[in-house]
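#lab-general

N.A. 3:47 PM
ok so I finally got the sequence cleaned up, no stray characters, all 473 residues accounted for. can someone with queue access submit it? mine expired

B.Y. 3:52 PM
send it over

N.A. 3:53 PM
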Amino acid sequence: MNHHGTLHLRCFIARFAEREQRLLLLATAWIKISMKRIAVCVYTTNAAETIRAVEIASAIARLDDDVVVTFFTYNGHSPGGKKRTVDYEHLIQGFDVTYFGGEDIVLDDVMWQAFRQAELNREGIFPPPYDLKATKYLRAVIDTLTDYQPDILVYGLFPEVALASAIQGWKSVSFSAIERNSYMNWMSRNSDTLAKIGLQATNGSMCKNNPWRVIQNAAIECGLKLKDSNDFMNAICPSRTALCDFKRFYENKALSPGVVIVGPIISSTTNSSSDTMQLIEAFLKSDDKRDQDPSRIKILLSMGSTGNPLTFVEGLKALNNATPGEFRSVVMVPACLHDSHLVNEILSSSMNNNDIFIVKDFVPVRPILALVDVLICHGGQLSVQCGLAAGLPIVGVPTQAEQCWNLQNIEDCNAGVCILPVDWKEKQIREALHCVGDEPSYKTEALKLQHEFLRDGVGAEQVASLVLYTLTC
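B.Y. 4:20 PM
back already:
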């Protein structure tokens, strides 16, 4: 073949390859368009919500490869600005991620700290400056999801998404930490207890001082239709709700329509090879006094991803001021408390205590729980579920109503002790640690809940199946 013939052949091959590439891209685009679109929406400032969302999304991908799963969240920093102090966005790596409103809608440290401070001060869940931006935030959620054209929304504690779903008429499945009817009934019966932690029971109506009024008004402005002001919570109910908790906690309780108990959803990570984890393991396993002194209790102190400085410090004081050799403790310091003067003052003393190992890095908690006897926590659902899944009795202090609910459920099962903030003092904490650590009945009941988890522990797969079923209805 002469030179011109070779050149023509090469051009033909190049054009053919280019055409094939275009066809491949078109086919891929068509497949994506024809596949069902699932939007998983989560605040990545909340570790528990993010972990549940990741486990559910992973389960959906395993069960059906004919769906597209995309995560939606708020951007954590302005362009060129500093990243949010507390953010677990790294947990959703590997999935497609879209930000509500792109770079224009930012839930940065200013907003996040406002949420946290309002929570600590019992000022409501939609504090300033959120109240000034609520409508803008909600419209950003609606517009971003409308561009995506979801076939179904999956979300946890995300009121903006619940509202968007109600306004646009999208199918939805919520993974919930608490069943609303049971919780509201419990609140009305325990108003005295809630008052002791600075909270007031509410019947869920949109009374003048109800913090939900901020987002209700934004929803109405964005097109939500209500029969009356008391219809708000019913109007934003999802198609179905997956209740992520132990069935035992809901025995003899009437559930709302559309609620399915799926069991706890916790991280599937049960081991860690990080340097920090190896040091923790060496610290706990080096306890050669345990065989000689059976009363020596191994403890994990973990107060969640947000952390209340006062309760954290009192818990650490209980361990730091204990008799040498009384406990052997691992203490996880929440990222938001790293700069707290109050916390760092007691930490500096604890660093010299040979019975305490301080952890400031992010480390999966389940491998640590397998090595200790008792968990001290704030009553957050992920914390208590991880502890019970490990068969550990719990000593906890609630500073929010749902934490009190979780800890009272545990106490009712005799799997732990709930200490109210007013009584959360180092002496009482040490007494409670010995109570649950030395009395075998607490361990026995915790192991029963562990058995339930191991028997039914496919919560993420059950939610995934519920999502795929709802898609077909």
